[in-house]
Design brief:
By secondary structure, this protein is α/β, with parallel strands linked by helices. The chain has helices spanning 7-34, 42-59, 119-134, 172-186, 213-225, 296-314, 371-385, 429-452, 458-461, 486-502, 594-606, 630-636, and strands at residues 84-93, 96-103, 109-112, 141-147, 199-206, 231-236, 253-258, 263-265, 288-290, 338-345, 348-354, 361-364, 391-397, 420-425, 469-475, 507-513, 537-540, 562-566, 582-586, 616-619, 644-649, 657-661. The chain has 3 domains: 45-312, Rossmann fold; 354-573 and 583-619, Rossmann fold (3-Layer(aba) Sandwich); 626-661, no CATH class. It is 28% helix and 19% strand. The protein has a 9-stranded mixed sheet with strand order 19-18-17-12-16-15-13-14-20, with helices on both faces. It has a 6-stranded mixed sheet with strand order 4-5-6-3-7-8, sandwiched between helices.
């Protein structure tokens, strides 16, 4: 009999041995995972657990250590971010348990060996973040996050407007921007190591796929330098799997290693849970059941409370930015420029003006970010400083809101701001085209007058003629260019021509809206001679970063009520560096001070020149009434020049009556 097996038999035997070995490995891994650290004498374990529960209640009271189901949105915070935070429940025996605490704020970091794609880790991160935020005074803890899944920290979205937790970075570019901000936080200043009055927490829920060794080295360097500079890290998925699995533990971090049913907690930095000679040699000698996902309604309620408290604490009084009125009303002269206070930086009012060097503004911010509040504050300041002979306002809002209602008559209050010549709410694009046409014609008249006077500048021309500076504000500008049609092209050309010619003759534009405002998509957007190049003043509100240069990220994470004011066309520089052309400001919301607005409007209205007429108001949502038509009224008064069919009101600044004369001449017919 041939004892040499054939190739097929050898292959089958090898496959069987492989399956048997794989089964043994799987069974052994399961047994090892379910094997807990062996406790010592049970009675001592009960006594020790009792003592540790008492100690934990003292070290981590309330938000930092109590059971989450015992906390409410009104549970009090401490004097600062809690130094200890609960990551789970240690259970040396099933009925002998105590809170598992980690020293974090002021001490070190927390690392988890599995990232937040594991549901237990996602719940743990949300619980730890909720404890830290709930236990700190509003604004004392800033959070920056990286989450390649894009969903782990979604319940904390209400913190974005307050600047406490901007939307997490989801890709490598976002990761590197977050790391750059953290590095600036820990970089020593001119006088030595920085001392911050707030704590920065960097949460890494899941690293992006293309994270490289240089990025990991930056995280390690931040972990090494962070605690002494008020920076702390919570990193899930460290060390990263794959080629980086052999990387060293995160410096100065307490590690948490997940098993199938529990986790093992390593020693905190510079200390040990066990005494010398303990077996096993390191870490907490007890399994830890990690924190479960906190209730979503509790997370949302705490985030909204913190956001409201931050907003209330950062509110600025409108009256602090307005000039003294009364007998000193309209003392400023607009011959050389217009200047108003738009906000506060470090306790000092920040001026912003219209001059030949800064003739036009772009203002960008997402919906609800305070764009109307910023514009209203600036315009009220101008109206309080410059009288109708020095300033004329034209206001147009293409959105559904009523951005400029504070300047106009209402059914309840018939006063108005006398500098306003015309205004539009829910305006059509055709209205804005007519408005720009009228302003272009005014610039041409002024240019011709200057030419006849020997090429005089605007300031010299004003000495001989009553020429107010004109400020035209158009809000929701992207709606002008939403359709790439002939009208959009005409509007772009009008804006370009008016911006170029108007600066020398006292005509200034303020274009506002969300995102890039519809103009930056042009190929020549980056050049000084482009349309955008005519707008050196850029104001970025929350969500308004696109109005700045792509390399300028100073508007990232802005809270509502603040803005970046840049007077160099959005140019940036090293993050955190002092920029003479850029200021981070707080600005008030006039809606918070209705009595101040009402008092100022009435004071300006009562001081209006004799014979002043209220502004012509176009409301795109309102149907014209025949009884209000001036030509119809003239006909009723016997002042009609001849029979005519009145069709409606034109979409223009003057709200002209559209009529067809029905005289005796042939061909005077109307077909509908």
């Amino acid at each position: 009999m041939d004892t040499v097996a054939g190739p097929k038999a050898r292959t089958n035997r090898a496959a069987a041995l492989h399956r048997r070995a794989a089964a043994v490995v799987t069974a052994a891994a399961g047994i090892l995972d379910e094997t807990r650290p062996a406790p010592a004498d049970q009675r001592r374990q009960y006594e020790l657990a009792d003592r540790l529960r008492v100690v934990a209640a003292r070290l981590a009271p309330g938000w930092s250590g109590a059971n989450l189901d015992s906390l409410t949105v009104d549970s009090p915070a401490g004097d600062g971010p809690p130094p200890f935070v609960r990551v789970g429940t240690a259970a040396p025996l099933d009925d002998a348990r105590f809170p598992a605490l980690v020293p974090l704020i002021g001490a070190g970091h927390l690392s988890v060996d599995t990232d937040a794609r594991e549901p237990r880790v996602a719940g743990l991160l949300r619980a730890v973040l909720l404890r830290l935020l709930g236990g700190a005074p509003a604004g004392a803890l800033l959070v920056r996050a990286v989450d390649a899944t894009g969903a782990v920290l979604t319940p904390f979205g209400a913190l974005a407007d307050a600047g406490l937790l901007p939307p997490p970075a989801v890709d490598v570019a976002g990761l590197r921007a977050v790391l750059t901000e953290a590095e600036q936080w820990v970089t020593p200043g001119a006088s030595g190591r920085r001392r911050h009055d707030r704590t920065l927490l960097l949460v890494v829920a899941a690293l992006p796929e293309l994270t490289g060794p240089t990025d990991l080295a930056r995280i390690e360097a931040l972990a090494e330098q962070g605690p002494t500079a008020g920076l702390h890290l919570v990193v899930a998925g460290w060390p990263p799997p794959g080629p980086y699995a052999s990387r060293a533990p995160l410096p100065q971090a307490t590690s948490l290693v997940l098993r199938n049913a529990y986790a093992l907690l390593g020693d905190p930095p510079g200390a040990s849970f066990a005494g010398p000679g303990a077996e096993p040699p390191g870490g907490l000698n007890s399994p830890v059941f990690v924190e479960t996902d906190p209730p979503a309604d509790l997370v949302d309620a705490v985030c909204r409370r913190l956001a409201a408290q931050v907003e209330a604490g950062s509110r600025l009084a409108l009256a602090d930015l307005l000039p003294a009125t009364g007998e000193r009303l309209w003392e400023a002269d607009s011959s050389d420029s217009l200047t108003t206070m738009v906000g506060d930086a470090g306790g000092r009012p920040v001026p912003l003006g219209f001059t030949e060097l800064t003739p036009h503004w772009l203002v960008s911010g997402r919906s609800g970010a305070g764009r109307a509040a910023f514009l209203t504050t600036a315009l009220l300041g101008l109206a309080a400083r410059y009288g109708p002979d020095d300033l004329a306002l034209y206001l147009a809002d293409l959105g559904d809101g009523e951005s400029f209602v504070e300047f106009l008559q209402t059914e309840r209050d018939r006063s108005w701001i006398p500098q306003v010549r015309a205004a539009a709410m829910a305006a059509d694009r055709e209205y804005v085209r007519d408005l720009l046409d009228q302003l272009t014609a005014e610039v041409q008249r002024r240019a011709e007058a200057a030419g006849r006077a020997g090429g005089q500048r605007f300031a010299e021309l004003r000495q001989h003629r009553s020429l107010p500076r004109i400020v035209c504000v158009v809000d929701n500008v992207p709606l002008l260019f939403a359709e790439r049609d002939r009208l959009a092209a005409e509007l772009t050309a009008q804006v370009d021509g008016l911006a170029r010619a108007g600066r020398a003759y006292g005509v200034h534009l303020v274009l506002a809206g969300a995102g890039e405002l519809g103009l930056s998509g042009r190929a020549d957007a980056g050049h000084r001679d482009s349309v955008l190049g005519q707008f050196p003043v850029r104001v970025a509100l929350p969500g308004g970063g696109p109005v700045l240069e792509p390399t300028n990220d100073s508007a990232a994470g802005l809270p509502v009520g603040s803005a970046v004011v840049n007077t160099a066309g959005g140019l940036g520089g090293p993050r955190g560096a002092i920029r003479g052309h850029e200021r981070l400001i707080r600005h008030p919301d006039p809606l918070d001070h209705p009595e101040v607005v009402e008092q100022l409007r009435h004071e300006l209205w009562e001081a209006r020149p004799a014979g002043s007429a209220p502004p012509v108001v176009f409301a795109g949502y309102a149907r014209p009434l025949l009884s209000n038509d001036p030509r119809h009224r003239a006909a009723l008064a016997g002042q009609a020049h001849g029979p005519a069919a009145l069709l409606g009101r034109a979409v223009d600044v003057a709200r002209t009556t559209v009529a067809v004369p029905m005289g005796p001449a042939a061909g005077r017919n109307l077909a509908v």
